[in-house]
Design goal:
The protein is of the alpha+beta class and 182 residues long. Helix content is 20%, strand content 38%. A hairpin with a 5-residue loop joins strand 7 (113-114) and strand 8 (120-122).
């Protein structure tokens, strides 16, 4: 094992011991979470994201008029609202499977479910994003991206001890019935 890797592992363990000692004497910090609308399971964040990108694109049709020096812009539609942020997951206490379970939760919620014959049995789950008063769970979201980077800390059995996940949520509207009449 390289010296640098050994130093990183020792530093990581020292940091985790410090967090554990502080956690015993301090109230639990308030962190955000995702809640699965279908079954109520939660993904609590280890740490809050450093920044959240909130985007609603607006689509315009630009019409060229002969003889004018500029186009006329006509609003045509809005795109879906999207949120993007990164989360870090670290091993909690001595639970070597903690990071893997968090990633599995995200994968289970963002992908559809198939039955034993390979037929689609359930759509991807909708989630609530709870983050203080800014995002209070009043809107439903689909996880449209969960890009995982497993960072450079591993157990002896090569389970990840640290992962960073880039998450993109797209707002869901309950009237998304894809042309079906109720």
């Amino acid at each position: 094992m390289s010296d640098l890797r050994m130093v990183m592992i020792v530093q990581f363990n020292d940091i985790m011991r410090s967090f554990t000692a502080l956690a015993g004497s301090a109230p639990k910090p308030v962190t955000g979470c995702l809640v699965d609308v279908e079954n109520g399971s939660r993904l609590e964040f280890c740490f809050n994201p450093g920044e959240i990108d909130d985007d609603i694109s607006v689509n315009y049709a630009f019409i060229n008029i002969p003889g004018q020096g500029h186009s006329v812009a006509q609003w045509s539609s809005n795109s879906s609202r999207k949120l993007a942020y990164s989360l870090d997951f670290y091993r909690k206490n001595s639970d070597d499977n903690y990071v893997r379970r968090k990633i599995q939760w995200l994968e289970r919620v963002k992908t559809p479910t198939y039955d034993a014959e390979g037929y689609l049995s359930a759509a991807p789950h909708r989630v609530l994003f709870l983050f203080g008063n800014l995002f209070n769970g009043s809107k439903k979201w689909l996880i449209t991206q969960a890009k995982v980077r497993y960072n450079n800390l591993w157990t002896k059995s090569l389970d990840p001890l640290w992962a960073t996940v880039d998450i993109e949520l797209t707002e869901w509207h309950d009237d998304n019935n894809f042309g079906r009449r109720s």
